[in-house]
Every structure is written in structure tokens, then in C-alpha cells.
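FIELD: query
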Amino acid sequence: MQHITYTPHGVCARQIDIDVENGIITAATFTGGCSGNTKGVTALLIGMNVNEAIKRLEGIRCGSKHTSCPDQLACALKEFVEHSA
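FIELD: result
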């Protein structure tokens, strides 16, 4: 299993922690952010392939911000994929 700790930018969440095993997300938690939304997003991601999660979350915006907690999670996963190659 591989653990990712990511510091998001431009959102309320202060940290995102993700566990990945064999390309599948096994756990994800946000520190800070909108609790219900971040718990909902992470519950939907468990068991999902990393690349599929990136595809679904990348580019989601929060209000007038150019990013969101889901988009920042996609950024964390993209960084993980790039460093795993």
C-alpha cells in the first residue's frame, strides 16, 4: 500500500491523505473543508481506480474558485501517478 499526503491549494481543506493499493483507492480523508462534502466524495472514491478518479474529479470548481477539494484530490492523484511511473 502507498500513502499520499497532499497539501491542497486554493481550498478550505488543509490536507488530503489517500491510501492506494494496486492502483485502487482504499482510503481518503480531508483535514478541513466542508465535512459532509469531503466525506461524501471520499466514500464514493473507495474502491475506485486512481485514473478513473482523476478523470471524474479533475476540473471541478467550487463557486468562483478555480479549483475545489475534489479537484485538489485529483491533483494529488496526478502527482502520485507521475511519481510512480
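FIELD: remark
Strands lie at 2-6, 15-21, 24-31.
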